[in-house]
Hints:
Structural class: alpha/beta
Shape: globular
CATH architecture of the largest domain: 3-Layer(bba) Sandwich
Order of helices and strands: EHEEHHHEEHEEEEHE
Radius of gyration: 18 Å
Largest sheet: 7 strands, mixed
Oligomer: single chain
CATH class of the largest domain: Alpha Beta
Bound molecules: flavin-adenine dinucleotide
Number of strands: 10
Strand content: 25-35%
Amino acid sequence: xxxxxxKTDLLxxxxxxxxxxxxxxxxxxxxxxxxKILIVEKANIKRSGCLAAGVxxxxxxxxxxxxxxxxxxYAKKDxxxxxxxxxxxxxxxxxNEITAHLEKLGLVILKDKDGKYVTRxxxxxxxxxxxxxPILANAVxxxxxxxxxxxxxxxxxxxxxxxxxxxxxFGIENDTFYAIEAKAVIIATGGAAGFQGIKCGTRxxxxxxxxxxxxxxxxx
Length: 220
Ligand SMILES: Cc1cc2nc3c(=O)[nH]c(=O)nc-3n(C[C@H](O)[C@H](O)[C@H](O)COP(=O)(O)OP(=O)(O)OC[C@H]3O[C@@H](n4cnc5c(N)ncnc54)[C@H](O)[C@@H]3O)c2cc1C
């Protein structure tokens, strides 16, 4: 078995929608030109995660007459109150800005005769989203100093002084063990609701049992 040691500034574990967009956001920050980012994905970021096959709506949008706090209320109820309301609020405040950016990247959003987005319910807009993952993967590809390691499954973190400063993984299609060192780590391995059985009987229970990490950051 080969051992590959990699050093990076920011390690993103999971290259689904959140992982890809985290790389885009980090690179858009000021002074990020030299920031080295590594995305590690157990599948291939072009078609990975829950949105791999595409979707026909964005379910996180603040429609006309609604406010970010309305979304927070909905999400809180949907998750039986197990949420960080402050985080949800700051995320909700940026939904529409991110949607506009996704449209610029090439996502087709349906519009009515007045040029307004076509809604589907209180917090959803209709899209032609079969290519949402390839669109995000292409956007990631264009970023400088961003490397993608597809087909590598991360199975543990490297922890020092109670801080995550890297991770360990195995190549799925090769016999390589990866030891990755990073100044900061973003865990974007998807929802673990199905794994934890919080909402059995709804669409949440169809989510793949990735790892119970959910989402966390560990700046050094
Ligand atoms: C059935 C269904 C229908 C949905 N429909 C819609 C919809 O119409 N509109 C909408 O807006 N949202 C919809 N969603 C929700 C949407 O898909 C999710 O909110 C979104 O995909 C979450 O993105 P994510 O990047 O957090 O997680 P994911 O998309 O799950 O991505 C996580 C990534 O991490 C990778 N990964 C996991 N573990 C590891 C590991 N150990 N090592 C390396 N990589 C790893 C996975 O392969 C995956 O690519 C739907 C979800 C489901 C399940």
